[in-house]
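debug: dumping io for the single-chain case to check the tokenizer round-trip. Nothing else runs in this session.
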Amino acid sequence: MPKLIGNPLYHWTHLELKRYFDCDLILSDKTVDTIWELTAEKLASPEMSARGLIKSSRVEALCTTDDPIDTLEYHDAIAADDTFDTQVLPAFRPDKGMNIERSGIAEYIDKLSTASGVKITDLDSLKEAYLNRLDYFDARGCRTADHGYDDYVLFVKPNPYAANEAFKKALASDGKEVSEEEAALYKCEMMRFFGGEYTRRGWVMQIHMGVMRNPNSVQLSKLGPDTGHDTIAGKNCIMDLARLFDLLRASESLPKTIVYSINPVDNAAIGALIGSYQHSDGSGMQRIHQGSAWWFNDHNDGMRSQMKTLASLATFGNFLGMLTDSRSFTSYARHEYFRRILCDVIGEWVEKGEYPADVDALGQMVCDICYNNTKDFFGFKL
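debug: decoded output
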């Protein structure tokens, strides 16, 4: 920890110690035992339960990440619990069913058949199964779907017949005989389907892209996937992303969308691309947004760079603010981290005379970016 100068983990750790444990000590080999004892004692109190931390962080709504086959039984239980005020809503994450080029796809589709009650043999029955699950999620307050593109978005001209053949080949070979182009044909067809359904339901579609998975094959064999060894992919896919948006827009299937790239090189391209889709529903909020600096970029320099690029190319006052997908219940401090950086960046513009020192206007802008814009865009009923 003492060697992590400039690293967000250093900032987050000490902010969490201060906010949740009232501890001003700097974590080092000299203080570690004292901090261990202090935090252990504090963690034993009811206020430090998962619910206690959510309440003390003043969280009004949070979204989990859920596979279409999930039962959502705990969402039902929380919704029926009058002692807990925070909304806990599901988010639809269909990645496993999208990646038909990977082994295990046949087993997954069997599970989707069971969950939906639809026997899946082709693309039409697959869509019927997904419609069942989309309705199931919608009935439980779902407001968003999340699509993770490993490496990059690959677009090909849609061909429903070829997409159906690719899907049936995936089922027959468990993904082993599916080419990259066949997988892309299938994914584009499914994105057109999902985009229309999200639009119809008023959901927000989130796209995360630019990840290179498991570059360290030795660690992958030892520990498996999702163990901290992913990295930033280098390929620019803005052209294919633009083609996907155009396909959806042309068929009136482009939902409200947020784009996150793990590659900071994409910031300017995304900021410019969303300007091609400034149309709105009359609310004054554009259809497509760039999300906050994500994963390897949600540090001081990364956040500043993303904010400044977005402000130079788009309507910064419409920015949707911070997102964190951390699994830690003390990571709400990262929202404070974001707010501090946001206010510092805005303050710099004011001090340079690039925006008037209008406290009311500036305060409203910060409140919108940190709260109102997200609440209104997703349609959360708080």
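debug: round-trip ok. Residues 180-201 form the longest helix (22 residues).
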